[in-house]
Amino acid sequence: MFASIILLLICVVFIVVQLKSRRPKNFPPGPPVWPILGNILDLSLENPLKDFERLKKTYGNVYRVILADYGSSWKEQRRFALMNLRNFGMGKDSMEERIHGEIQYTVDTLEKSIGKSFSPQNMFHNAASNIICQVLFGKRFEYQDETMKTLVQCFTENAKIANGPWAMVIRSFTFQLTMYILDLHFAGTDTTSNTLLTGFLYLMNYPQVQERCQQEIDMVLEGKDQASSEDRNNMPYVQAVIHEFQRVANTVPLSVFHCTTKDTELNGYSIPKGTLIIPNLTSVLNEEGQWKFPNEFNPENFLNDQGEFVKPEAFMPFSAGPRMCLGEGLARMELFLFTVTLLRKFKFIWPEDAGEPDFTPVYGVTLTPKPYRMKVQLRVSQKIPNL
Ligand code: HEM
After folding, report:
1. Which of 227, 231, 327, 377 minimizes the number of CB atoms within 10 Å of its CB?
2. How far is the C-alpha of 195 from the C-alpha of 240, rounded, in Å?
3. What's the CA-to-centroid distance between 88 and ligand 1, angstroms?
């Protein structure tokens, strides 16, 4: 008798779940859905990007996977983060000076490492983190500061937990506050530092690209103390290289998940209100037909026949639409000023004993290059008055 009641209950729950998740006729296609679990088992914990690629091949550009319900607290946190960032003075003119101030610490670190082989991971992470700390707390931390070290370590550890689709499941439980801080940290730090790490990995392994940047930088900045954002307009090649860093770095591969606020049509499919949308930026940044060289590191992707800088439509590492990255301006300023200032002063060399470079990224909420080591030399041909 007891067993029959349990069985009946299971059947009722099963039918309710099925009815609840009934979708419109024209809903995008996708893999078969398991009751309760949805499609969570179709996605790998380690790296769902390959699964998304596989699903795209089977079901086309718009397909559905069913995951856990997201809840509204997430949306509230985002709004809260946004408000905080706006209030704490992002995008003000003084930002450029703050970035230059931080770059000076990076230059000092590099000067101390001249001739040695060292890992740049913490250096870029600390620098990007300090810039966002200045935005959030109005102060920077010494690289050796214990608070800073603990902060970086905690965030790196948490980043491993908050991995891919499971992050949603975790988020919908109790880690609200941690996730909020994580959101801010990822937003301002991991993204920029991982892009720089990827960039310098490629610069060391494409020395001819590095040299061509340095020639352009020397020419445009001749007689100037330091670069400013406006110099971008006179550096088409450097611009192309930095954009190519971002394209291959593919730092936020699945962007941020969104939810439809009303019934919507997309590519002829009906998407009901309340559907979770996962934009696959990886597929746009590598799409055949959108890029001259989709599968290789090549700044020509952003240059026309006259050598002028052009930005193809498919370049959307900051995503698109009204919710696109709020820190784009700051991030682009950081990427430009760091790349230009460091390349002006140093030559970056892939250490002789480092073996073949491995460009395959490590998957997380952000993509990170595999840990690597670098060597630097002071450049002699620079014409810098005061650096
Ligand atoms: C190379 C660096 C960066 C990349 C590639 C990047 C990329 C992204 C992407 C893809 C999104 C999701 C947009 C969407 O929901 O459609 C995002 C959101 C966001 N980013 Fe960035 N980001 C970068 C740097 C920064 C920086 C430096 C900040 C500064 C604090 C920042 C702040 C934010 C914030 C606050 C959001 C949430 C916006 C919202 O929910 O409306 N990002 N970013």
Report:
1. 377
2. 14
3. 16
Report how far apart, in Å, the C-alpha atoms of 138 and of each of 88, 91, 155, 188, 379 are: 8, 14, 20, 14, 34
- Total of domains in the chain: 1
Q: How many CA atoms lie within 13 A of 348 on its CB side?
A: 31
Q: Which residues, 6 or more positions from 355, have their beta carbon under 8 angstroms from its beta carbon?
A: none
Domain carrying residue 343: 71-250+286-378
Alpha helices in the chain (DSSP H): 2-20, 49-59, 73-87, 94-112, 121-137, 146-161, 164-171, 176-185, 191-205, 207-220, 236-249, 281-285, 328-345
Q: Report residue 171's pLDDT band, with 50, 70 and 90 as the boundaries.
A: very low
> Per-residue pLDDT tens for 24-51?
778 888 888 766 667 777 777 677 888 8
d(Cα 220, Cα 237) in Å, to the nearest integer? 12
- For residues 134 and 89, give the distance between their C-alpha atoms in angstroms, rounded to a whole number: 10
Does residue 85 have its Cβ closer than 6 Å to ligand 1? yes
- Give a yes or no: residue 235 inside a domain: yes
With a 6 A CB cut-off, is 324 part of the ligand 1 pocket?
A: yes
Please name which of 14, 17, 68, 63 lies closest in space to residue 38, comparing C-alpha atoms: 68
Say which CATH number the domain at 309 has: 1.10.630.10
Q: Evaluate: CB of 316 within 6 angstroms of ligand 1.
A: no
Give, as one character, the DSSP assignment of residue 383: -
